[in-house]
Amino acid sequence: MAANSFLTNAMKTFLSLVLLCFVFLEGCNSLLTKGEPAAETDPVPPMGYMPVYAHALAPLPAKPKETPAFYMSRIESNEPNRIRLFVHIVDSTGNLLYGAGKQKIWCMLMDSIEGKATEIKDFKVKEISESDRVPTAIALVMDHSGSMGEERAHLVQDAAEHFIDNKRPEDAISLIKYDNKISVEAPLSKDAAMLKSNLHKNGLEGFGGLTAIGDGIAAGVGIVAGAREYDRRAVIVFTDGLDNSSTILKDSVITLARKTNTLICCVDFGVNTDKGYLPDVANKCGGTYNNVYSSHEFDPVFGDVYRKLKNYYEIDYAPRAYGMHTISLKVCIPGHPVSAVQSFDNTPIIGTSGLVDVNFDFDKAEITASSRQAVDGIVYLMKAFPAMTIELRGHTDSLNSTKDPDYNKKLSQRRADAVKAAIAKGGITPSRIKAIGFGESVPVADNATEEGRARNRRTEIAIVTK
Predict the structure, then answer these.
(1) How far apart are CA 208 and CA 212, in angstroms?
(2) Average pLDDT along the chain
(3) In this structure, are residues 178 and 143 in contact, taking their beta carbons and an 8 Å threshold?
(4) Which CATH architecture has domain 56-129+314-345?
(5) Where are the domains of the chain?
(6) 0.90 exceeded by the pTM?
(7) How far is 348 from 159, CA to CA, in rounded Å?
């Protein structure tokens, strides 16, 4: 009798466990099918939140009555040994102020790495505006996960329609919606009428699942990266939540964007987002970042991102080292000097190469004193990443001081070995560095001109492991 009672209780326990497992699995299945619950109201913005969105253009006054906003919206470091800062001057009403490109108001540029600040004297300033008609390919990637809810989904779609209405004729747009799956609603096209006809303004119909931000960005990069006829390619990604269902990791998204030279401009909505995800993507992929709190900001923030892609001051200079930089730029607007500070990492990604700013006297393999900072930068980088291994690649131009056909290859090998020795002297194990001399076999410019030969005389760093 006791045994039967024991068996009965055991059976009840087993059935209870089965029921709990069934309920748990059904709940998981329901979550995957129905997605995230919609937030009922917009979040409360933080204290002091007063965004100003660029909505028009105006000339910079000779003597402004108020101090304009000045900031770096993005930084590009995709091209070896070149840094481009994209900066904007905006008044309190949201006018992007133009006309300062040729004025002598750009006072000071400081580049700091590992606490060592260097003033950059030889930077260049160029002004770009939408009147220059630089063709741009843009993928607009819009979150349609369940947490968005019907009303906010409709507002995002209205903002996308307005985005199409206000695009420049030379620009092409692709429309992508995503939850835990990706849907390309409109292929890349300049045709505004076609784009609007493909935009389904139907809320969350067909969507409402989980959130695959990385997959959405990767899809956008895949579309615009192949559009080589466009001078600039960008993805604008919007989300209201965490990435909880992507098949591609964030670092892989960043690598993909940087390899294809695609800007990633990011917009977070609300407070339930991963504050380390899109800001990091934007920072490492030369894009802008915004965090908005009202669903009525969708339209102005999309417009703001677009106008800043088309209108900016470009500050161009050669960095002295690789790694995490802090840039400080000061502009002396009459009566209203302003500064902006931004950080970025120009560490080459695995599989790519970048220039090392080391110099040699003609026909010599001894590093000049002016190369010290470049060597220190690599030492700093390799100490920051103890598992990193690199290749140093030496190159020469086609001139030869002897009749030895292999002379330039031997010279480039000695120069690469000299850079390796200098890095090792800084405390890096020599086995982490491979030095290769290529001589004149891999030119990047025409050896018939002095400018071309100067570009061909170079040392490159390639990250093998990190």
Answers:
(1) 12
(2) 88
(3) yes
(4) Sandwich (2.60)
(5) 56-129+314-345, 133-308, 353-465
(6) no
(7) 36
